Amino acid sequence: MARVDFMTTAETFSDTPNPEHHHSWALIAGQLAQAISQGHYAVGQRLPSEHALADQFGVNRHTIRRALSELGQRGWVRSAQGSGTYVEEFALDLALGKRSRHQQNLALVGLRGALQLIESKRLRANADQARALQLPARAPVLWLRVLGMAADKPVHVGERLFPAQRFPELDTMLRATGSITAALKHHGVSDYTRRDSRIAAVMPMDWVASALRQSASRPVLQVESLNVDTHGVPVEYATTWFAGDRVKLTVNHHEG
């Protein structure tokens, strides 16, 4: 099996109780997760043995075992007794909390990514959209089709609606920054939180499957969500489809 060269920090990994080193297993877990997400290890592939990983990272097997346990709890890998540790079908664990942010989610697992604006339109809200965004019937809305990328791979695609009068330049700012958060901040919304989320496994429409580069016969995770500003006023109503074989969603009920 080919050796994967991991980036190292100036800190020397150690299993001693020294507080400067007690997070070495977490750093190793993060680097292994990054290697998996970037395709160094394919779905179903066996990882190097604990002994080989211990040699590679310069730690003992207890630290490697703790790192692999963390990855297992997060759905990245699975262990088969007497056989080894294998990359699980889920390759990316994304948090779905009050303040879910695409770039921050990826940064937590050592990846870079951005949102790509595929298409934008000014439309009139239908009854359901107007009700969700607390707008008058037929009020103008900004409709965006947005693709979320991680390490050059699509992980989600969505249709997102915003009150057009409040956010007239949001599509322009999103195209320039790759960030909904930055685009909202440009319009005076310094913070926003998720008020509602509804998750379901569905079969993808053809355009969703094409955007996610997956077969239309494989299910996707559909998330309908409503985001509000600090005053509780809706700022975004969205439907997002996540690649079912590339993403695991973790709902965080304890986020402050």
SSE inventory with pairings:
Layout: H1 24-37, H2 50-57, H3 61-73, E1 77-80, E2 84-87, E3 93-96, H4 102-107, E4 115-124, H5 127-133, E5 140-150, E6 153-163, H6 170-177, H7 180-186, E7 192-202, H8 206-211, E8 220-229, E9 234-243, E10 248-251
Parallel strand pairs: 3-10
Antiparallel strand pairs: 1-2, 4-5, 5-6, 6-9, 7-8, 8-9
Helix pairs in contact: 1-3, 2-3, 6-7
Describe the structure.
With 256 residues, the chain is α+β, with helices and mostly antiparallel strands. It folds into two domains: 24-87, Winged helix-like DNA-binding domain superfamily/Winged helix DNA-binding domain (Arc Repressor Mutant, subunit A, Orthogonal Bundle); 93-251, Chorismate lyase (3-Layer(aba) Sandwich). Helices cover 27% and strands 31% of the residues. It has helices at 24-37, 50-57, 61-73, 102-107, 127-133, 170-177, 180-186, 206-211, and strands at residues 77-80, 84-87, 93-96, 115-124, 140-150, 153-163, 192-202, 220-229, 234-243, 248-251. Strands 4-5-6-9-8-7 form a six-stranded antiparallel β-sheet. Helix 1 packs across helix 3 (61-73) and helix 2 (50-57) crosses helix 3 (61-73). 32% of the residues are buried.
Which architecture of the largest domain per CATH? 3-Layer(aba) Sandwich
Summarize the helix and strand pattern as letters: HHHEEEHEHEEHHEHEEE
Give the tally of structural domains. 2
Strand content: 25-35%
What's the CATH topology label of the largest domain? Answer: Chorismate lyase
Structural class, from secondary structure content? alpha+beta
Question: How do you describe this structure in short?
Answer:
This protein has 256 residues and is of the alpha+beta class. 27% of the residues lie in helices and 31% in strands. 32% of the residues are buried.
